[in-house]
UniProtKB/TrEMBL annotation:
InterPro entries from the UniProt entry: Phytyl_CoA_dOase-like (IPR008775)
Superkingdom assignment: Bacteria
Stated name of the protein: Phytanoyl-CoA dioxygenase family protein
Organism: Amazonocrinis nigriterrae CENA67
One Pfam family from the record: PhyH
An MF annotation (GO) of this entry: 2-oxoglutarate-dependent dioxygenase activity
Keywords: Dioxygenase, Oxidoreductase
Taxonomic classification: Bacteria, Bacillati, Cyanobacteriota, Cyanophyceae, Nostocales
SUPFAM superfamilies reported for this sequence: Clavaminate synthase-like
Length: 319
């Protein structure tokens, strides 16, 4: 075994041990109900039992939604929901260009935080100089309090069509779990950095049922960090995927699901899609161009664990 392969293997083991310990610590100290969900929801029967006991009908809620007030035109609700049920993915929920520009301007005029650390704030144009000064490499630049600071994002999290899709798919009145706006920076990354930036195949465990809307805010091609989803994997996983919950290699995913199940998503700025994050998915590390992407998440329960809200007094910019 080569030295680099051995190092990657050891780094993989230590990363997984750390992630498990941190998840248990965070759940026990912040929200034990969230930790219980994380253990139970990986199994289909566990999700079914919990949803049976806590189900709230979506029908009465849907009657109050006026989809004509949506930012999105010519999106067929039934088609989206049916695709989500069968494939776990629907492509083509695209932002109006004026909204794209508003969010880009917000991102360029607001501090982001390196690798999601609240004490490592900088403006996007300062990134290279900050890295040089700190002798530190940033894989991501993440924004906080986006729904409070950016009217366009606030409008999206309350958009009638997105809420209707969520209600129909979740089969309940949806709750907004949170937003996430971030840069994925182009360049070389280590195994640990890719793992922290969700750049290996994995599936999320944010609730017993939940969905995420994604919007590219920069043009994304094969060299600038496309999102990859394994079509249909929300409904089918082998036992080791359920019990071990680790970052999976491309080979393991392709061997089990077949290469035709992998959907590599490229698109112009404004291109959007919705995904059941129980599907295996990953972001490919960008190599030539930074990627800016917005995520808006809805679920059946808000555990107060997924949001981007931070006390402004705790946010520090690098001087």
């Amino acid at each position: 075994m080569s030295t680099s392969l051995l190092n990657n293997c050891l780094e993989n083991i230590f990363t997984k041990i750390y992630e498990n310990l941190y998840e248990n610590y965070k759940g026990l100290t912040q929200n034990p109900r969230w930790l219980l969900m994380r253990k139970v929801a990986r199994f289909k029967i566990g999700r079914a039992i919990m949803l049976f006991f806590f189900k709230r009908s979506s029908q009465s809620y849907l009657t109050f939604i006026n989809e004509s007030n949506s930012c999105f035109a010519e999106i067929h609700l039934d088609r989206v929901v049916n695709k989500l049920k069968t494939e776990g993915l629907y492509l083509g929920i695209n932002l109006p260009q004026e909204m794209v520009q508003e969010i880009i301007e917000f991102a360029k005029s607001t501090a982001c935080y390196g690798n999601r650390k609240s004490n490592l704030g900088f403006y996007y144009h300062q990134k290279e100089q900050v890295e040089k000064n700190l002798r530190k490499h940033f894989t991501t630049g993440n924004y906080f309090n986006t729904g409070l600071l950016c009217p366009a994002i606030k409008k999206l999290q309350n958009d009638p069509l997105l809420l209707a899709i969520a209600a129909r798919y979740l089969d309940t009145q949806p709750v907004h779990q949170g937003n996430h706006l971030w840069w994925s920076f182009a360049g070389k990354t280590t195994y640990h950095e890719q793992s922290q930036a969700a750049q290996f195949f994995h599936y999320d465990m944010d609730d017993y049922r939940f969905i995420k809307f994604f919007f590219y805010l920069t043009d994304v091609d094969e060299t600038s960090g496309p999102h990859v989803c394994v079509r249909g994997s929300h409904n089918q996983k082998k036992l080791s995927h359920l019990c071990l919950r680790k970052r999976e290699t491309d080979k393991d995913i392709i061997d089990y699901y077949g290469i035709d199940s992998l959907v590599k998503i490229c698109g112009k700025a404004g291109f959007g899609f919705v995904e059941d994050p129980l599907c295996f998915h990953k972001g490919i590390p960008p190599t030539h161009q930074d990627r800016l992407i917005l995520q808006i998440e809805f679920a059946t329960t808000d555990y107060n664990m997924q949001h981007d809200i931070r006390e402004t007094s705790l946010l520090k910019c690098i001087e």
